[in-house]
Design brief:
Bound molecules: pyridoxal-5'-phosphate
Structural class: alpha/beta
Distance between the termini: 44 Å
Number of strands: 15
Length: 379
């Protein structure tokens, strides 16, 4: 059987990871500034994480959501505490798309409405409702077109206000920082006004923190820079440091009832063990503080490079925009300098490193990056 060929691949096989370093099957070391697409939060194969998962593997991998699972309770308590959302509840799933799918369902159940507002350049995943609110018609199948969505420009509060006036919108869904859309940070005043407009019209505000959450920006959630409290927050990616787990963080306005939501694998013993270990390490190693500090350093240094058009940074979520396509920069960084980076569209390099990135890792990247820029822009 062949693999269904949907992913363009680099011809590199990664077989090992430690901290911010990954190794291919020939033993070649790479600096990982991509984190497997923002998934690696505490670093590859952290010894505490490995030990906790190994121990749990020997005890129990899975049992269904029909029995008491105190790992879920411990995870919810620790997540509530570290994120300052102790009064909210947690529903556990397996991925970012599934988290958004359930958040949209909750919003629609709660309001009885079916229209949604998302934003220009948004990405929320590929399941039916999540892909419908993603601003990319190429990945929306006819079967996904089940409800009306508007995509105003990010930060355009007037358009959003107009659309909310009829009180027929169940939810506004917005990324803490747009990732796929090119590291676009919503303005603080916009988020504050958006939150107020949603409250005034009985519209549910969903903050998709799948990519921007879990300490990546220096705060636990990117929206906390705007000091707002959304009705629903979705998480995944960094939550399990590579073990698939996601969640919906749910405010007290929502009433749970048996059978309202459900999933077979969501919140299983192994996934919760991974997620608890991640939170323990985030706290013990002060990784949010590190993300803020190293992010600031990278921003200052990147801003000194004249060939760069714009640098957009919040912690370790970094977009570096050029006037020209970045494909060659990334290929040379990868194949000559052994540094993994990500991209958004054609002209933006996206950096999503593990949150344990050190200043010397950052310097290693900066030296190589300057060199490649010099080479390519003077060739
Ligand atoms: C902001 C955001 N939401 C949702 C998703 C979907 O997450 P998953 O691929 O785990 O379904 C992604 C994935 O890139 C994302 O960046």
């Amino acid at each position: 059987m062949d693999l269904f060929n949907v992913y363009p691949l680099f011809d590199i096989e990664i077989s090992k990871g430690i901290g911010c370093r990954i190794y291919d099957n020939h033993g070649i070391e790479y600096l990982d500034l991509y984190g497997g697409h923002a998934v690696i939060s505490i670093g590859h194969s952290h010894p505490y994480y490995v030990q906790k998962l190994t121990q749990q593997l020997e005890n129990l991998v899975f049992y269904s959501n029909s029995i008491v699972n105190n790992f879920q309770v411990e995870l919810a308590e620790k997540l509530g505490k570290i994120s300052a959302y102790e009064d909210y509840s947690l529903f556990l799933v397996n991925s970012g798309a599934e988290a958004n799918e359930n958040a949209l369902k909750l919003a629609s159940f709660h309001t009885g409405r079916r229209k949604v507002i998302a934003f220009n350049k948004s990405f929320h995943g590929r399941t039916s409702a999540a892909v419908r609110v993603t601003d990319n018609p190429k990945i929306v199948a006819p079967i996904n077109e089940g409800f009306e969505v508007e995509f105003p420009a990010l930060n355009d509060i007037n358009s959003v206000s107009k659309s909310l006036k009829n009180k027929d919108v169940c939810a506004v869904i917005i990324e803490g920082i747009q990732g796929v859309g090119g590291i676009r940070v919503p303005e603080i005043d916009f988020l504050k006004e958006l939150s107020a407009e949603c409250k005034a019209t009985g519209t549910i505000l969903i903050l998709d923190e799948v990519q921007s959450g879990y300490g990546r920006t220096g705060k636990f959630f990117a929206h906390q820079y705007a000091d707002i409290r959304p009705d629903l927050i979705t998480v995944a990616k960094g939550m399990g440091n590579g073990f698939p787990i996601g969640g919906v963080i749910i405010s007290t306005i929502f009433k749970a009832s048996h059978g309202l939501l459900g999933t077979t694998f969501g919140g299983n013993h192994l996934a919760c063990t991974a997620a608890i270990a991640v939170l323990d390490i985030l706290k013990a190693e002060h990784l949010m503080e590190n993300a803020e500090k190293i992010g600031q350093y990278l921003m200052n240094e990147l801003n000194k490079i004249p060939q760069i058009k714009e640098v957009r940074v919040l912690g370790l979520m970094i977009g570096v925009e050029f006037d020209q396509p970045v494909k060659d920069f990334r290929n040379r960084l990868l194949f000559e300098k052994k540094i993994f980076t990500g991209a958004s569209g054609t002209n933006i390099i996206r950096l999503l490193p593990p949150l344990c990135l050190s200043k010397s890792d950052a310097n290693e990247f900066l030296i190589s990056f300057r060199e490649i820029i010099q080479l390519l822009l003077t060739d």
